[in-house]
């Protein structure tokens, strides 16, 4: 089977108890617009997916609609709707040039603070209190999806080092797909735009670090952010860990 771009399962161990994240529940990926029959069978029968969450914008979903899987529930959670910065879409990467690092830091601030992002991640995390195999994705599976994965692992008490390792694994997982995008765009955009897209297609430790720093600056702690920012119940972390950690 041809690999599905940036598909992987979340794992790790609670740094305080040593309990492992239960396998078979959380899968992250890039967009699912080109799934062949074998890949569809793999997702349905091997991973036993029951739900797919799409973090993309309406424009992205219209341009590159997901291949729908029979028997799988679909949910759209556009965490960037009504914000001024959608630097996570391919179209925005092509339209912009230069200062990619600064623009991505701004994007990650919006992930932390924008009301639409907070509402979206609240919706996503609370939905996980009903355990079922779920795949969540955006365009590249790196930014909106990367934050969702980091939130899951952080709530489960996984170490910052393991969270970062999962986040940075995108750069290896997307190498072939990124080269295809750049080759396709080479004759269509300027050299500056192509360099900007190349830079925007990868993740940087600074981005995720900045996200958590912004949370600390505005809320004092991650735990307070969950309650005051994401409006989760005070018992959410305890309940979540009881569902998804095993000895």
From TrEMBL:
Pfam families: Y_phosphatase3. This is Tyrosine-protein phosphatase. Gene3D superfamilies: Protein tyrosine phosphatase superfamily. Belongs to the protein-tyrosine phosphatase family. SUPFAM superfamilies: (Phosphotyrosine protein) phosphatases II (SSF52799).
């Amino acid at each position: 089977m041809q690999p599905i771009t940036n598909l992987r399962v979340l794992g790790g161990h609670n740094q305080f108890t040593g309990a492992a994240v239960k396998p078979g529940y959380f899968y992250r990926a890039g967009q699912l617009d080109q799934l062949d029959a074998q890949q569809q069978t793999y997702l349905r029968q091997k991973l036993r997916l029951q739900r797919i969450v799409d973090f993309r914008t309406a424009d992205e979903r219209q341009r590159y609609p997901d291949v729908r899987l029979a028997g799988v529930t679909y949910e759209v959670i556009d965490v960037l709707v009504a914000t001024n910065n959608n630097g996570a879409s391919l179209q925005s990467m092509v339209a912009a040039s230069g200062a990619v690092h600064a623009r991505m830091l701004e994007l990650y601030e919006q992930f932390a603070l924008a009301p639409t992002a907070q509402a979206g991640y609240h919706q996503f995390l609370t939905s996980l209190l009903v355990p079922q195999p779920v795949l969540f994705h955006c365009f590249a599976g790196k930014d909106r999806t990367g934050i969702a994965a980091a939130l899951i692992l952080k709530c489960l008490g996984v170490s910052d080092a393991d969270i970062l390792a999962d986040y940075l694994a995108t750069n290896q997982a997307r190498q072939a797909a990124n080269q295809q995008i750049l080759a396709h765009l080479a004759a269509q955009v300027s050299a500056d735009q192509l360099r900007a897209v190349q830079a925007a297609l990868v993740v940087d430790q600074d981005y995720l670090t900045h996200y958590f720093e912004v949370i600390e600056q505005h809320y004092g702690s991650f735990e307070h952010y969950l309650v005051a920012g994401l409006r989760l119940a005070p018992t959410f972390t305890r309940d979540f860990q009881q569902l998804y950690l095993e000895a």
